[in-house]
Amino acid sequence: MEWYWGVGAMLKFGRVEYRYADCPPDNGNKYDTRTAIDFGPDGILGVEYKFEDTPLNVFGEVSVLLELVDRFFTPQLFGAVGARFIF
Hints:
It is a single chain. The chain has strands at 2-21, 29-50, 56-67, 74-85. The protein has one domain (2-85). Strands 1-2-3-4 form a 4-stranded antiparallel β-sheet, with no helix packed on it. It contains no helices and 4 strands.
C-alpha cells in the first residue's frame, strides 16, 4: 500500500433542487432549482494498492475543499473509492 497527498484547486458546478411545503392557505408543494458554483483550495490524502501480477490498482481518498466562492471559507469534505486499469 502506498500513501499519497497533494494540494491544488477545485472548481465545481452543480444543480441543487429544493422541494418544500408552503404555509396555509396555499399548502402546496413548491420547487426551486439553483446552480451552485464552488471554487477554492483543495487538499487530498489517499492510499492505493497495486496488484503485482495484474495491471490494476485500487484506491481510497479523502479531500477537503475550502470554499472561496458562493459560501466564503466553508469547508467541504469529499471521499472516493475506486479502481484504475493501468495500460
